[in-house]
Amino acid sequence: MSTLRIPTARIFEPLLAPSRYKGVYGGRGSGKSHFFGELLVETCQAERGTSAVCIREAQRSLAQSSKRLIESKIAALGLSHGFRVYSDKIATPGDGIIIFRGMQSYTFKAVITIIVTGLVGAVWLGLKVMLGK
Question: How many domains, in total, are found in the chain?
Fold first, then answer.
């Protein structure tokens, strides 16, 4: 078994520590999606059977989802042999799956329920709104 080595920008290093929840905010081009895309691929490779849902606020099609970014991270990390890419999902090692949805498919309460109950191993939630109190 080979070791996966992913260079991480110093600003994201604290997010490598084990934690139930991880969150960041920042402007466009700050590397958030690339960091979390690599982290999700690494998690799916290391913890076989991991299931995840990637939810974006403004996703009208898969072309607007994080799917293409995750596909590119799988290829760049040389892990294409362990993942199966389909038109609407990505099968992960050990019979896990990554699905992609728009926020319009869920209420905010439903998303929080998914996160809190641990129905999936990882949730990638991309929002461009300020959440009220």
Answer: 1
> What would the pLDDT profile of 64-74 be if each residue is shown by its tens digit?
568 988 999 99
Residue 102 is which amino acid? G
Q: In what order do the strands lie in the sheet with 84-85?
A: 84-85, 89-92, 96-102, 52-56, 122-126
Residue type, 103: M
State which residues form the domain around 77: 30-126
Q: What distance in Å separates the CA atoms of residue 30 and residue 32, rounded to the nearest whole number?
A: 6
Instruction: Assign residue 52 the CATH number of its domain.
Output: 3.40.50.300
pTM as predicted: 0.77
Residue 8 belongs to a domain: no
Q: Is residue 86 part of a domain?
A: yes
Report if residue 41 sits inside a domain. yes
Q: How far apart are CA 18 and CA 105, in angstroms?
A: 30
